[in-house]
Design brief:
The structure holds two protein chains of two kinds. Chain A is α+β, with helices and mostly antiparallel strands. In chain A, about 35% of the residues lie in helices and about 15% in strands. The radius of gyration of chain A is 16 Å and the shape is globular. In chain B, strand 6 and strand 7 form a beta hairpin. Chain B is an alpha+beta fold. Classes of the chains: A alpha+beta, B alpha+beta.
Chain lengths: ~160, ~290
């Protein structure tokens, strides 16, 4: 069974890799690409732990074939901080302890960023709706939601 | 998942050729939100995966000069939500499509996939049926059109001929005074599969319904067009008697199953309730147009 060659862009860098035709994008990220910040939870699109962006749109990496990355722009949690500088969401999650075991955190951060890019001033309900595709097995939702709302307020203030 | 071949043709002719040549061993990949899960669970083991997203027609949203809107079968929900005019013309169809899964799923899931997956509980299907949408299908025998309600054949099955691929949905031009809506009943507030789904599209003039269509999901082996419910609404001012007659028609159309989400009796009752609520929203929207 021959491997397929894929040329794509990940976090702004051109990347080439080989994959099996049936490999998921999650398999490729965590395998040959060594980007293990994207987590595998359910593998069936229910938990959101593998949330990435494709051309800026949020998707589950487990529900996408690796070969479909060809020619597209992929964003993962590894691209969220700029060098040593954490994204405001990452900083606020640490400050407010908006994580427990942490396995859902990369996916939650990716989904939160996608939400705030579209809606910089969400209500609590909109945050909960925007993150409905991200399951936290520790059930620590409340701190997550509060951290997203706080970050949104901070980012709005910074943008003034 | 071994020995799969992946092809991503750029023309429909190539896709149909590959699909027909595989004689049943191929699967069409649009958003993959059902297909990849089915492959992972071992429910389907395709020999070939045909990715249709490189075919321009499959991912296009076109506003035709006569007011109709044509949506490529593989357009994901998020793209329809971002479109500046689609949701204004068809808010009910859009809300139905956007109810399919999470934001992540919306990034990939398409109305074509929702229809072809053949689930009686597919959220976009009752709304598309209510809208009077027509699908364009292309296969080895050429191109044909069929109303959305003619596509589902039973759970997981469609009336598409071997080698046929759904290409696009065409929604009719909207006369003045039209509105549509979709509601689904689920035990949770989000991220669940419909216990009952109801789509209603109305056109009204001077407070009187001049045209109506009703689609009902998750209450029979296929999503249903409920013509008797539409007849009960047409000519009425959506008074209590007309709404009750339409609700009764919906209840009469139900042939549901008992499952963990709802019993037969519950689904039948809810079908009538949802019809009334959905019609009220569609009427309010019609009044605003």
């Amino acid at each position: 069974m021959s491997k397929l060659h894929v040329s794509t862009t990940i976090n702004g860098e051109p990347v080439e890799f080989l994959c099996d035709p049936s490999a998921s994008m999650l398999d490729a990220l965590r395998g040959p690409l060594g980007l293990t910040g994207t987590k595998e939870g359910c593998g069936t699109g229910d938990c959101g732990a593998c949330s990435i962006t494709v051309d800026g749109r949020l998707v589950c990496a487990c529900l996408m074939l690796a070969v479909e990355a060809e020619g597209h722009e992929i964003g993962t949690i590894e691209g969220m901080a700029q060098g040593d500088e954490l994204h405001p969401l990452q900083r606020k999650f640490l400050e407010m302890a908006a994580l427990q075991c942490g396995i859902c955190t990369p996916g939650v951060l990716m989904a939160s960023r996608a939400l705030l890019e579209k809606n910089p001033d969400p209500t609590e309900e909109e945050v909960r709706f925007g993150l409905a595709g991200n399951l936290c097995r520790c059930t620590g939702y409340d701190k997550i939601v509060r951290a997203v709302l706080e970050t949104a307020a901070e980012m709005r203030e910074a943008a003034r | 998942m071994t020995d799969i071949r992946y092809v991503a043709p750029s023309t429909l002719e190539e896709a149909v050729g590959a699909f027909a040549a595989a004689s049943g061993a191929a699967r069409i990949l649009a958003g993959g939100t059902d297909l990849l899960v089915q492959m992972r669970n071992g429910v389907v083991k395709p020999g070939t995966i045909i990715d249709i997203k490189k075919i321009a027609e499959m991912t296009a949203i076109e506003e035709l000069p006569d007011g109709r809107i044509r949506i490529g079968a593989a357009v994901p929900g998020v793209v329809l939500a971002e479109h500046p005019r689609f949701g204004k013309a068809w808010p009910g169809v859009l809300e139905a499509i956007n109810l399919i899964g999470s934001k992540q799923v919306q990034g990939r899931a398409s109305p074509g996939g929702n229809l072809c997956n053949g689930s009686p509980a597919g959220d976009s299907v009752p709304a598309m049926i209510a809208a009077g949408a027509v699908v364009t299908v292309q296969g080895p025998g050429g191109r044909r059109e069929m109303p959305v309600e003619a596509v589902p054949a039973g759970p997981g099955r469609t009336n598409l001929a071997p080698g046929e691929i759904v290409v696009a949905f065409t929604l009719p031009a909207r006369p003045k005074g039209s509105g549509d809506a979709y509601l689904r009943m689920i035990p949770r507030t989000e991220m669940d599969i419909a216990v009952v789904g109801c789509g209603v599209s109305l056109t009204m003039a001077g407070g009187v319904v001049t045209a109506a269509r009703v689609g009902l999901g998750a209450v029979a082996p296929t999503v249903l067009l409920v013509e008797d419910a539409a007849k009960a609404l047409i000519g009425s001012r959506l008074d209590d008697a007309a709404l009750e007659a339409a609700a009764a028609a919906c209840r009469a159309a139900c042939k549901p199953i008992n499952d963990k989400r709802g019993t037969i009796a519950y689904r039948i009752k809810v079908a009538g309730v949802l019809l009334k609520r959905t019609a009220a929203i569609a009427a309010a929207r019609a009044g605003g147009n």
